[in-house]
Automatic annotation (TrEMBL):
PROSITE patterns: HTH_DEOR_2
GO MF terms, alphabetically ordered: DNA binding
Protein name in the entry: DeoR/GlpR family DNA-binding transcription regulator
SMART domains to which the protein is assigned, alphabetical: DeoRC, HTH_DEOR
Every HTH deoR-type domain range: 3-58
Entry keyword Transcription: yes
Keywords associated with the record: DNA-binding, Transcription, Transcription regulation
């Protein structure tokens, strides 16, 4: 296969799968690693793909594809850390908190450990539960459910049932797509009932999301913006987006 045709086929494969590994592409197209790397470098220079360690995904809004957890966890890390710190400062001693699954809420769990607050945390995220399990100042409850293939997330009827029985002070909801008309949307349907139960279970709901998530729409609607008490993001949000959220928007500056 000529290089131009192979690159077109590569791009089609990446767009079809959402996330692929470099080694998998080399095997699929029966070429050596150096050839694949040259092809991918060409596509990246053209702005058609984004590469990360060991893999790549289309150069499209992150909300359009279900990127593996380990990849998401490293993206916009400085912004997520600053957002998480601001969110942790909202939580008072003795309060109950529901943490949605995700890389930003994981950083919120890390921030809670550092602040040594006496709080009760409910989560469906296995990594968050592990992070908090050894902290004596935090009581953590991991919901039941079945794990999602691409994330350390528990979902299913038992997860929803547990959440429906709760009334927490806060829910901190992660989102890769926040839109002023579409509201909070999600990239897959399997997490939808869990996220909606989390929203309904709390006195106040805060969305914690990097500025890159704003102005994006994903496949499945979770809730309208009316259900959200506060939006916490980094100061990379555009002026147009900033104006749409009014006093509910809180921005932070990421460490350089």
């Amino acid at each position: 296969m000529q290089s131009a045709a192979r690159r077109r086929a590569l791009l089609e494969q990446v767009r079809a799968d959402g996330y692929v590994t470099t080694g998998g592409l080399a095997r699929q197209f029966d070429v050596d690693g150096s050839t694949i790397r040259r092809d991918l470098a060409h596509l990246e220079r053209a702005g058609l793909i984004k590469r990360t360690r060991g893999g790549l995904f289309p150069a499209e809004p992150a909300a359009a594809i279900d990127v593996p957890y380990d990849v998401r966890r490293g993206a916009h890390l400085a912004e997520k850390t600053a957002i998480a710190q601001a969110a942790a400062e909202l939580i008072e001693n003795g309060q109950s908190v529901i943490l949605d699954s995700g890389s930003t809420t994981y950083q919120l769990a890390v921030a809670l450990r550092r602040q040594k607050k006496d709080v009760f945390v409910v989560t469906n995220d296995l990594m968050i539960a592990v992070c908090l399990a050894t902290d004596p100042t935090i009581r953590v409850h991991l919901t039941g459910g079945s794990p999602v293939d691409t994330a350390y997330t528990l979902v299913g009827p038992s997860t929803v049932t547990e959440l429906e029985r709760l009334h927490a002070d806060w829910t901190f909801l992660g989102s890769e797509a926040v839109h002023h008309r579409a509201g909070i949307t999600n990239i897959n349907m399997v997490e939808l009932p869990v996220k909606q139960a989390m929203v309904n279970a709390a006195e106040r709901v805060a969305v914690v999301a990097a500025s890159a998530s704003f102005g994006k729409r994903a496949l499945v609607p979770v809730c309208s913006l009316d259900a959200i008490s506060l939006f916490i993001t980094d100061d990379g949000i555009t002026d147009d987006e900033r104006a749409r959220y009014g006093s509910r928007l809180h921005t932070v500056t990421a460490a350089v």
